[in-house]
Amino acid sequence: MGIMDAFASRSELDGQMGKDPLVLILTNCSPAEADSLASTLVKERLAACVNVVAGVKSFYVWEGQYTEDAESTLLIKTIEHRIDALVVRLRELHSYTAPEIVLVKPGGVDPRYLAWARESTAEVNR
Predict the structure, then answer these.
(1) DSSP codes of every residue in 7-70
(2) What is the pLDDT of residues 104-122, one digit of tens each?
(3) Which pLDDT does position 18 carry in this prediction?
(4) How many CA atoms lie within 13 A of 65 on its CB side?
(5) From residue 51, how far is each of 9, 39, 54, 65, 78 by CA, in Å?
(6) Which of 3, 32, 69, 103 has the fewest CB atoms within 10 Å, measured from its CB?
(7) What's 122's DSSP letter?
(8) What is the pLDDT of residues 8-58, one digit of tens each?
């Protein structure tokens, strides 16, 4: 069964994504800060879920120097209306001068997962 089979119809898929869709933000960070970044974003309800993918090796040029670094990739799931606040906070917490922040908009998300993500990122009255 493919992802499209999990939805009653294409209109259900299109309709549920239009209100406040789920987005995925990718960032890499040092392994030492990965858990702290992930935990803070979830505890502050900026992200519904963050997966930490350890053991990533990155190859890039930074400030004119070829570099190879061990990193962790964070797969950050949030709701579209929380993107701005999440990016501001990620920049505050991240140790990199120019952190990788890549936004991915999925073509579809299971409606039950989307409902949970919306609930998990709802701002709490304090």
Answers:
(1) SS-HHHHHHHHHHS-EEEEEEEE-HHHHHHHHHHHHHTTS-SEEEEEEEEEEEEEETTEEEEEE
(2) 999 889 999 999 999 999 9
(3) 62
(4) 4
(5) 29, 10, 9, 30, 12
(6) 32
(7) P
(8) 555 455 445 567 899 999 999 999 999 999 999 999 999 999 999 999 999
Query: Which residues, 6+ apart, have CB-to-CB distance to 28 below 8 Å?
Result: 56, 58, 71, 72, 73, 74, 99, 100
Distance of CA 86 to the CA centre of its chain: 9
Structure tokens that stand for 37 in this block: 């970044």
Amino acid found at 94: H
Q: In sequence order, which residues have a C-beta less than 8 Å from that of residue 78 and are 6 or more positions away?
A: 22, 23, 25, 46, 47, 48, 86, 117, 121
The pLDDT of residue 19 is 78
The angle subtended at Cα 110 by Cα 7 and Cα 11, nearest 5°, is 40
